[in-house]
Amino acid sequence: MADDDDARIRDPFWSAVHRRHPDLDIVLLPPEPPSDAESGQPHRAPEPFARMQLEDMEHLWAALVGHGMPRRDTRWIPGPTPDSIRHTVTLTLDGVGSTAGIGHLREAITALKGDDWKVFTPPTGMPRVLADRPGELGDESLLFGYVPEQNRLFARLTSTGIPVDDRTATDLIGGAA
Fold it and tell me: How far apart are CA 168 and CA 45, in angstroms?
């Protein structure tokens, strides 16, 4: 017991605790916070999922814009759980006048609400519509905006998470996993 008392006196933390609370013998620390939980869902093949999401985006573009041949950019990003990834599809159309661009955004608010999206329109900054809806593994989100300085209309659909193994995640998103 004497060795324990000597160690307490030499240690800055324990000496302060002992000085303030001489009646304490044991200090319990809270448990460590839980680590990010795995999804608990079976792994899925990413290619069919990406094709399905691309089709969803093309339907959204047709409903929200209905014209033009937008440029397409796709990528995989980390998901909401350590064993998942998300897929993003961005469509961009240049040469859209401000009247048409802002008009598409205004019409999108009603169209998205009618399709069970939760819609938010930020009051300041670049004209845009943010929307999300629940998915299997986290929300699916949409950013639909207009860049007046560049006459550019764009839409980015970010999928719900898809559970995959570590190797697939690393192959698809690299070191960001």
Answer: 9
Domain boundaries, position 54: 46-176
Q: With H, G, I as helix, E, B as strand and everything else as coil, classify residue 107.
A: helix
Q: Cα separation of 154 and 108, whole Å? A: 12
pLDDT in tens, 103-126: 999 999 999 998 889 999 999 999
State pLDDT tens for residues 12-59. Answer: 877 787 788 878 776 677 776 555 567 778 899 999 999 999 999 999
Task: Find the length of the chain.
Answer: 177
Query: Measured in Å, how far apart are the chain's first and last C-alpha atoms?
Result: 49
Q: What CATH number does residue 133 fall under? A: 3.40.1000
Does residue 17 sit within a domain?
no
- Whole-angstrom distance, CA of residue 81 vs CA of residue 79: 6
* Whole-structure pTM value: 0.76
Cα–Cα dist 88/49, whole Å: 11
Q: Report the number of distinct structural domains present in the chain.
A: 1
Q: Across the chain, where does the E strand assignment appear? A: 71-78, 84-94, 118-120, 128-135, 138-147, 152-158, 162-163
- Residue 29 counted as domain residue: no
